[in-house]
């Protein structure tokens, strides 16, 4: 619409419109002879002006269009398979996690990797997959190693009480843990997170949805603070020397994926 409005003054002087004007008023008195010369009377100059205006408008729209980054285009088959392909063939996750399940779950979280520039989108995607790679060993693990032997029941949380005999250890791409996360994620996504936490390890789309749910509620809003802030949001115990090896591994994955996606990793990488 904006393009049409800006080109309208040029249209008013085109030969076609002049012919229409003359035909429409052919029964009226002939127009007075014009003196002088208008730039718009030259077909070549009109064409140049039209091209110039169109180029100016397209140049002005380019940054806005660049903000609408399609996640599916960035997370290509090659990118996804390049990660899961590094898992051993015997890994349970290798026949569980799929790109199609990732994209299916993404449909419920369309604000993921949106809201900024194209580079911002790529950085958030790189950060997400860096943490997923670290948490699951390149999509090898569906459940936390020795998870059943660990207690992730916060009995002080009365809103999401632990169900008898259920374990709330790490499951899925982001290794969702704790009863309060399972309860809240289940309510949001639509499954019984407290009564059937094992669903996260059985339904791959729900599994990815729990990762998106955690990310959008705890990480997405701070992505602009740098990758280090995302580490603190996911596992703050690793920061400040708590587990430098894990922090360095996460940063390594992140910088690698940024390189693959053709974007600079930014500042504040560690925590």
UniProtKB/TrEMBL annotation:
Protein name per its UniProtKB record: chitinase
GO molecular function: chitin binding; endochitinase activity
Protein family: Belongs to the glycosyl hydrolase 19 family. Chitinase class IV subfamily.
Glycoside hydrolase family 19 catalytic domain ranges (all copies): 91-113, 206-216
InterPro entries xref list: Glyco_hydro_19_cat, Lysozyme-like_dom_sf
Signal peptide positions (record): 1-16
Reactions it catalyzes: Random endo-hydrolysis of N-acetyl-beta-D-glucosaminide (1->4)-beta-linkages in chitin and chitodextrins
Gene3D superfamilies hit by this protein: 1.10.530.10, Endochitinase, domain 2
PANTHER family: CHITINASE FAMILY PROTEIN, CHITINASE-RELATED
EC number: 3.2.1.14
Swiss-Prot/TrEMBL GO biological process terms: cell wall macromolecule catabolic process; chitin catabolic process; defense response; polysaccharide catabolic process
Keywords: Carbohydrate metabolism, Chitin degradation, Chitin-binding, Disulfide bond, Glycosidase, Hydrolase, Plant defense, Polysaccharide degradation, Signal
Lineage: Eukaryota, Viridiplantae, Streptophyta, Embryophyta, Tracheophyta
